[in-house]
């Protein structure tokens, strides 16, 4: 079975490879993934993701789980599961205040502070939709293209229509802006990458499977439960984001 550190790197690899987060050891991260090997070196690399790792710590503490890279914790952050429901409003608010209040403009902090009482969860979609636009935490000028960056940075689900060597043709549900608000639009077909130098994390994927996509990279094959959780938490946090747009 895959462990939490291996699941984490599947989602963290591509933004790290692009230079947006984590250490400068993206090749090492990739090699750990294709080999399926977990050791202290991998854990150290993953602890350097200053955007994601503190959320894992928060989820683990709230669920009395010792290891922030426990498989259940990692899944909760990237895709969503029942562990998110056990992070109470106060704990999330305090975490947001500690991490981000000093990094937001005075006029922006009340908007972000309102999200925990309104029902935010420590899910990647919340970070991408509500925290990132006000705080940043990217090491690149991509932060200047906010909507485009949000769309690439959120974890998307896609149905595989065709397997084509290093790429997959997938049907995804895009994030669009209409009348000043965000919404999930009609499905569209995109090409996403699944291999680097002939290797990747979804080698055995077949037509009809659901895959997760992050920064144009096929991260993993989703179970029906995982896909449903990802869609539910994404829709919830899109609605939450719209409250302060």
SSE blueprint:
Layout: H1 4-17, H2 26-35, H3 40-46, H4 53-62, H5 71-78, H6 89-100, H7 109-113, H8 115-118, H9 124-135, H10 146-153, E1 156-164, E2 167-172, E3 175-178, E4 181-184, E5 188-193, E6 210-214, E7 217-221, H11 224-242
Antiparallel strand pairs: 1-2, 1-6, 2-5, 3-4, 6-7
Q: What is the N-to-C order of secondary-structure elements (H for helix, E for strand)?
A: HHHHHHHHHHEEEEEEEH
> Which structural category do the helix and sheet elements fall into?
alpha+beta
Reading side by side through the largest sheet, how are the strands ordered?
Answer: 5-2-1-6-7
Uncertain parts: 137-144
Commentary on this structure:
It is built from eleven helices and seven strands. The protein is globular, with a radius of gyration of 17 Å. The protein has two domains: 4-144, no CATH class; 155-223, SH3 type barrels (Roll), CATH 2.30.30. The strands form two sheets. A five-stranded antiparallel sheet has the order 5-2-1-6-7. Helices cover 44% and strands 16% of the residues. The chain has helices at 4-17, 26-35, 40-46, 53-62, 71-78, 89-100, 109-113, 115-118, 124-135, 146-153, 224-242; strands at residues 156-164, 167-172, 175-178, 181-184, 188-193, 210-214, 217-221. It is of the alpha+beta class and 245 residues long. The longest helix has 19 residues, at 224-242. The model is unreliable at 137-144 (pLDDT under 50).
């Amino acid at each position: 079975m895959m462990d939490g550190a291996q699941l984490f790197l599947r989602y963290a690899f591509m933004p790290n490879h692009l230079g947006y987060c984590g250490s400068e050891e993206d090749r090492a991260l990739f090699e750990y993934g294709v080999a399926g090997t977990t050791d202290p070196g991998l854990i150290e690399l993953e602890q350097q993701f200053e955007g994601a790792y503190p959320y894992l710590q928060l989820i683990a503490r709230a669920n009395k789980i010792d290891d922030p890279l426990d498989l259940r914790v990692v899944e909760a952050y990237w895709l969503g599961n029942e562990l998110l429901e056990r992070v109470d409003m106060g704990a999330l608010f305090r975490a947001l205040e500690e991490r981000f209040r000093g990094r937001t403009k005075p006029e922006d902090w009340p908007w972000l502070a309102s999200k925990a009482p309104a029902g935010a969860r420590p899910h990647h979609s919340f970070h991408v939709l509500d925290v990132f636009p006000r705080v940043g935490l990217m090491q690149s000028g991509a932060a200047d293209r906010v909507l485009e960056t949000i769309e690439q940075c959120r974890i998307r689900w896609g149905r595989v229509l065709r397997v084509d060597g290093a790429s997959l043709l997938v049907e995804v549900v895009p994030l669009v802006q209409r009348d000043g608000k965000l919404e999930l639009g009609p499905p569209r077909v995109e090409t996403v990458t699944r291999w680097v130098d002939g290797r990747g994390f979804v080698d055995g994927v077949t037509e009809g499977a659901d895959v997760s996509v992050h920064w144009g990279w096929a991260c993993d094959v989703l179970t029906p439960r995982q896909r449903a959780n990802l869609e539910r938490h994404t829709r919830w946090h899109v609605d939450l984001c719209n409250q302060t747009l």
